[in-house]
Amino acid sequence: MARQKRQPCAETDALAEKLGQTILRLRTADKMSLGDLSEISGVAKSMISQIEKNETNPSLATLSRLSQALGTSVEAMVSQGDSSSALVQKTNIQDTPLLKSEDGLCELRIIGSIDTVQWVQWYDFRAQPNGKLISSPHPDGSVENLTLLTGKALVEIGDESWEVNTGETLRYRADRPHIITNIGKTLIHATMVNILAHAVRTVSS
Q1: Which of 8, 80, 184, 187 is most buried, by the most CB atoms less than 10 A from its CB?
Q2: At a CB cut-off of 8 Å and minimum separation 6, what does 166 contact?
Q3: Angle formed by the axes of helices 45-52 and 34-41, to 10°?
């Protein structure tokens, strides 16, 4: 039985056109040639050109490789949101992932965007007195930024340690095991921003 030809769909065609425009915009913003994007993503240069011109429908695997190479997500590339709006995203506290230490004294909320997690990880950190957050090493060259909003903390990395008081910011190498301990008598509240290695190299280059 012969397969029927797909009827035109205005919504699908508009989405495909937007996708091509988005890939082209991100590529040119990063000053990448078709060859550059092809080499990084593993997608053929001719295929990328066809996607940008809305001449083909790429597979999900192809979109995933392109989004990673462009530093974004598939969801962001196909989003139908109003690009003229200043608002990018608004989330409720119920939608913010919450992690707790084994002793229950530390809470870590992941407040950074999932779209930038491969570059920057942003957390809201709280710890009860004597609470201790033990972290494994991040990729080589990563830098963690701890800003203490209230309380007093001790940061330990190997044989080195530093005290941090309310209003102070400490930046340290996070590519080795590190520990943050509440050494005060009240709750500590802090923001933590972990800049991953490839982002550090991009900024410094």
Answers
A1: 184
A2: 148, 149, 150, 151, 152
A3: 120
Tell me, rounded to whole angstroms, the distance of Cα 50 from its chain centroid: 28
Distances (CA, A) of 76 to 56, 82, 105, 114, 193: 20, 12, 35, 10, 22
Least confident of 41-50, 81-90, 95-104, 128-137: 81-90
**pLDDT-derived band of residue 83, with 50, 70 and 90 as boundaries?**
low
> What are 176's two structure tokens?
């080795």
Rg of the chain in Å (alpha carbons): 22
Answer for the pair 48, 37: CB distance below 8 angstroms, yes or no. yes
Q: What does the alpha-carbon distance between residue 122 and residue 194 come to, in Å, rounded to a whole number?
A: 6
**pLDDT for residue 78:** 67
Element of type H or E holding 4:
none
Domains by residue range for the chain, with CATH: 10-78 (1.10.260.40), 93-204 (2.60.120.10)
d(CA 192, CA 112): 10
